[in-house]
Write a structure and sequence with these properties.
- The chain is an alpha+beta fold.
- The protein has a single domain, classed as Gcn5-related N-acetyltransferase (GNAT) (Aminopeptidase), CATH 3.40.630.30.
- It contains 7 helices and 12 strands.
Length: 250
């Protein structure tokens, strides 16, 4: 692992100096060790390869995971509705239809600039993804989940799904379904990505949830919710110096 930091800004009157923290993954590194240190894979530039960024990451301790009443309510909506296949990425056929499905989802859900074709192709070629979980109904694709996994942990990296089912909480069910499968495989931790902003607090539906506070993993969900709901008041006006030198997908 090669750790490095990149300056963001400063407030000298209070001796506050901001740095973004990164880690370059090397061949001998174990993925679960990177994730345990609070890092997640960075996919924001075609110039960045094997780079991870430190953030307010969330994970579930699978040994202690049990379905909550809300989990059971969501499970009833879609359990048994789809055919599911977990495919090693090296064996997955990337087709035009698959690309179009993923891009259409992001364009409708987040805006086309969030996932242009070049970024999707960069993610697929990154070498980090280990599996794609495919959900179909009557032979038609309903959802895809991109997973990064080793023998100790799994990361729910991206999901793409039929937005006509979004109001029925298909997105939440997909995360729950993948989490249950990881527990059944005796994985130790399931990583859910970042928790920033109120819209990301749906991840607190999974128990026991832990989040990375910059130093260690915290189980203080009340504090996590407070931070998520106030994130809009603590945004940074600047980009860190490392990103200023990178090519953008936009």
């Amino acid at each position: 692992m090669r750790f490095f930091s990149s300056e963001i800004g400063q407030r000298y009157d209070s001796y506050t100096f901001g740095y973004a923290n990164y880690c370059e993954c090397e061949a001998e590194d174990a993925l679960h060790q990177l994730y345990a240190l609070g890092y997640l894979p960075y996919s924001g530039s075609p110039n960045a390869h094997n780079v991870f960024y430190m953030a307010r990451s969330a994970r579930v301790d699978l040994a202690r995971f049990e379905l909550s009443s809300e989990n059971r309510r969501i499970a009833k909506k879609f359990d048994g509705e789809f055919t599911k296949e977990r495919i090693a990425f090296k064996d997955f056929a990337v087709t035009h239809e698959f690309i179009d499905f993923c891009l259409s989802y992001f364009a409708q859900k987040h805006g086309a600039s969030a996932m242009p074709k070049a970024r999707l192709e960069h993610i697929l070629a990154s070498g980090l993804m280990t599996h794609i979980i495919v959900y179909t109904k009557e032979s038609k694709p309903v959802a895809y989940v991109f997973a990064v996994a080793d023998e100790h942990c799994e990361h729910y990296w991206f999901s793409f799904y039929d937005l006509s089912l979004a109001r029925q909480s298909l997105g939440l069910w997909l995360m729950l379904d993948c989490l249950r499968d990881a527990k059944a495989r005796a994985s130790m931790h399931y990583y859910l990505g970042t928790v920033y902003g109120e819209t990301a607090l749906y991840k607190t539906n999974f128990e026991p949830l832990e989040w990375y506070d910059g130093k260690s993993w915290s189980s203080d969900i009340k504090l996590l919710k407070e931070r998520g709901r106030s994130d809009d008041t603590r945004t940074l006006p600047a980009t860190d110096a490392w990103k200023e030198d990178l090519q953008s997908f936009n």
